[in-house]
Amino acid sequence: MTSNVKVRDLYEKYPQFETEFLKMWRNIIKEALAGQVARTPESKSLRGIKNIVKRHWPYFQESEATKVVDMISSRFNNHKLLPDWDGYREKLPNIFPDTIGQLSFMETPDGNYVISEIPQSTSSDTCVIIIQGSKMNAQFTDVPQDTAYSILSELSKSLA
User: Which of 58, 124, 126, 158 is buried most deeply by CB count within 10 Å?
Assistant: First the structure.
């Protein structure tokens, strides 16, 4: 359900909210993930965020709380590769179905960066990303398309 409340409206109405949100969104996700593990680890979607939001900001109207849930859910979906969630990946395989293992970041002697997946098994799933100056080259072998796009998206954001 999409709310008609705009983010800027929340920031104007509650001046402290922007700072609180930036500090709290990861903790709210972690709390929701822990609750999901306890309730229904086979679920495909993360639930319980709204109750946590209402506890943190009890003065929000329903539409405002819904907007904050949307903001947190969006951040979570856009940052599923963050190591913050590593402790929950195996426990919630349907929420993290297309994530990959650990990535290795190496700088070459000529100042380029090579980012590659550290294999966890003998599978042929690999990802190599070479950044040279302002150019980036990515090579994927048996990596799901969504995962490849997520990697490139997160990398592009961090380099911008």
Answer: 126
